[in-house]
Amino acid sequence: MSIPEDTQPNLAIANVSGVAPPPPLLFYGILFLFVLMIITPIGSIIAFREILRPGQQQRVVNMLPFMEAFLPPRPSPGDTLPTPMSGGDLDSVSDSLLSISISTPLPTLLSEEIVPTVIPTSQEATLRKPATPSPAITPTMRPSAVPSVVPTEITALSSAPAIPTSGRMYGFRHEQQTWNNCGPASITIALSYYGWPEDQEFARRILRPDREDKNVTPDEMVAFVNAETNIRALWRMGGSLDMLRLLIANEFPVIIGTGYMPEGYDWLGHYQTVVGFDPGSFYIYDSFIGTGENGEGYARPVAEVDREWQHFNRRFIVLYPPDRGAQLLSLLGDLADPMAAAAAAFETAQQDARTNPRNGFAWFNIGTSLVALGQYQQAALAFDQARQVNLPWRMLWYQFGPYEAYYNIGRYSECHGTGAIKPQ
To answer: What is the distance, to the nearest Å, from the Cα of residue 170 to the centroid of all Cα atoms in its chain?
Structure first.
């Protein structure tokens, strides 16, 4: 039997390989799967970088740590902070900023946040709160009617109140913060001292309705306490280590704003609730790290607390029942008045800058204090100096003084916005 010549090559191939060629459909199906295997990872990385919001990106990284390598590059400070003046101009004004003297008289009017209910002021520290809070200070979902504030003269203490060598407050309930939630978590921890039953999610829904909001300001936290509970709150800049000790010794929950750089992270702003102190340490309920050994507070050396607190101009938030407002004013002294507190913060920042002229936080604090005092021209120069020295790229997530200063003196073009980059 003869075989046509035109079929001989195909038979030869079949005879050599022993396998018939694959059908076209199978071939293209395999090719499609191969291409899909290449495209899918690339598409997933693009979606991870460009579509997911930072909070969603972080949840992916938590599950798949290798994905951190595909996060968008972090910006430099120059991408996120207002443009500074030239170095030569700054050199000529730094001395003048350090020579400014601001004198603020002893305040004569009661701060508007304080409800003037006068009670005897205890000079002795009581280091354990009563097991059952009195009905007058038990928090409620909404505050009862608050009497209108009547300006009242502040009487200065004849002598500085005694500060014990150690002190501890008990009765706080710790909250482990969720994504970007140290503000709501910290205010919940502080309120828990008074029996506050809600968790950080309750505070988060009011303070951070957008989960990608990076920051809750002291103003917002104070407003939350004053609106949602019958406990009161105020905040000031320019605190001191002795002021922290005095507040804790007298059982006033206090939250401080700090700069923070946990292992593996860039610089962040962070709130911490101070619950105790001894000669060498402060004890912190930290919504990120925890409560320390035996739940008595995470021990931090005094010098470290002060250094990190400096990053936020030594701001602090105090919670108090209305019937202890007068006592709190007496303990705060000059800091009871917001302008006097800003002046004190300014003088402290000046001293920090003299000690280390390369400390960008010190210059930034000078600017922040001057903004609070309405001195925008000098404040802008201080912010220029801070930017020229060094600052973390996230700085303006938390403190907005440069924009206020530059706006008030008409330097609009130098305030390129925080929305220009996608923050991490």
So the answer is: 24
Q: How far is CA 12 from CA 18, 19, 23, 30, in A?
A: 10, 11, 18, 26
Model confidence over 19-47: pLDDT tens digits? 666 677 777 777 777 777 777 777 666 76
Tokens of 81: 């902070």
Number of H helices, E strands in the chain: 15, 7
Pair of tokens at residue 96: 């003048």
Any idea what the Cα angle at residue 69 is, between residues 64 and 73, rounded to 5°? 130
Model pTM score: 0.72
Distance set, CA 95 to CA 90, 312, 342, 354, 409 (Å): 9, 23, 20, 9, 21
Higher pLDDT, 371 or 73: 371
| CA max distance for the chain | 128
Rg (alpha carbons) of the chain, rounded to whole number: 30
Domains of the chain, CATH where assigned: 23-70 (no CATH), 77-102+343-420 (1.25.40), 135-336 (3.90.70.10)
Mutual orientation of helices 360-372 and 376-389 as an angle, nearest 10°? 160
